[in-house]
Amino acid sequence: MKRVILHNVSVTLLIMGISTVMAQAFFHFSRNSTSVAIIYVLAVMLVARYTTGYITGIIASLFGVFFVNYVFTYPYMTFNFSLDGYPVSFIGMMLVSSITSTTTTRFKQQSKLLNEREKMLVEAEKETMRANLLRAVSHDLRTPLTSIIGLADTALNDSPEMTEEKRRELLEGIREDANWLLNMVENLLSITRIQSNGSDTQPHVKKVPEPLEEVVSEAIQRYHKRYPDSELKVKIPEDFLMVPMDPTLIEQVLMNLLENAWVHAGTRGPIELDIKEEEKNVVFYVRDHGVGIEPERIAQIFDGCAGAI
User: Fold this and answer.
1) Which residues are CB-contacts of 151 (< 8 A; sequence separation ≥ 6)?
2) What is the value of pTM for the model shown?
């Protein structure tokens, strides 16, 4: 509280002192007290802008009115309210200064409230993003973890038919899925940091030229491993394409799209993956022949709540 009072007093004295020097210089050349009054009105606005509360602005307006009367109105260095028309001028300047002070202070308080509300909205967005991350992690990691558990259970089986070669193959599958999960979690966390900070100094998705056919082939193999009964029709450009991408993220996106098409389509018809080179871009099209998305949910496809669909 003392710091606020000291700040208000210091700012008020500084602004009014500078204004008085300017008014004195202006009056010395023009002898126009009306113009001097305008300088003090501007000073009152600055005081209200850079101080807290209404009191300092009102005090500054009183100071300006009386100073105009005492220093810049004949007879000089004397208070004189008997001049013709001066009471009206005095009241007018007092009202203008006071209204200016209160209006500026109120505007500043409203700006403060808006800034606080904006901060609350940002915090709410961060909380929503954390919830979306949890949903994404649970969605993207559930199936690989289930696969790892299944492979581990099979590898630990003491069946006499389990050869050492087969057990080694299962362990290699566990290691492959574990590495996949590690890379995917790191990418998810990187994307979350990018979305939450929105700064150019924060880490970005690392894109390196990757063979398109290899990335797509890896995603298809993982998909067939999870859903061996699914029929998938793939069309890919015949030309050898090197595409800047994060292969783990692209594979996961393809996996999610194909999995959603198989699980939520409501049909066991074939799923089509059509990859086309369009100008300088490579576009992935995933199509199913299912029931489609409810019309009321289409507007939410790219919202944060889409993770719950």
Assistant:
1) 170, 171, 173, 174, 177
2) 0.44
